[in-house]
Amino acid sequence: MINRFLLGLLFACLLAGAGHAAGKPRIGITLHPYYSFVSSIVGDTAEVVPLIGEGFNPHSYRPQPEDIKKCMTLDALVVNGIGHDEFAFEIVEAAGMQDKLPFVFANKDVSLIPVSGRLDGKKVVNPHTFVSVTASVRQIYTIAKELGVLFPKHAEIYRKNARAYAGKLRGMKAEYMERIADLPLMDFRCATIHGGYDYLFQDFGLQVTAVIEPGHGLRPTASQLANVIDEIKNLGVEVIFTEMAFPDKYVDTIHEETGIRIRHLSHLTNGEYSTDGFEKGLRANLDALTSALVDVRPGEQGR
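Above: the chain's sequence. Below: its structure in token form.
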């Protein structure tokens, strides 16, 4: 019996040529920030194609036949490549495109750091470079450079657009840096539910004191939660940054037991794919972070 997977693959073989015949390069991306980055870089010179649909969790995603079909129509694929989009390599392998599809590794020139504040003490490279202004700008220049090599006809456009986009993001960061310029930040102690924000905090000279979830995407057990509450009390944590998708009951329990302020950050890997999606999400994160800092040190601002 021919299953859905094989039928999808058959469709892929029949339609693969059609995508390449459209004229513009088809550049695949794996995560939402890369849709914004690449769209801003290529403008109307290329079609930006999300490898997977909206609303899926990249951490637990399994390749689908339609992903393979899509993969076979691509001319290049931009990936995070350091632990957040492993599904992309499975799709490329299933499509038999390992030796045909050029990869652009966005983090090729980014200085990677480990997840800080893990209560188990383990050292793990943090793959969430795309939540930071500085690391994102580095990736934007790398993507523009690599795409310029693959599609030299548009290389100058890519360089120009990358500079303009990077300037816009840097301007946003400067706006929020000014907001907290007079605050004494060095002793700010915070916890995050998810270990994905080290690069964002690093942009402001801050470090995450503790990460609450026991592993990527894992919920703490009751005993782990009790230990976390004790630990963040001992560490003197002033603010906890949670995520929209994290169950409120855990956050509510921590808040009830500790009285510590709760603020929200976004992972930036959900919602609609859009050119300005990264800017909107980044601004919300910058606002949440700097607002928390101002709330913790209200008397210091403007001195």
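Strands lie at 26-29, 47-50, 76-79, 103-105, 190-192, 210-211, 239-243, 261-265.
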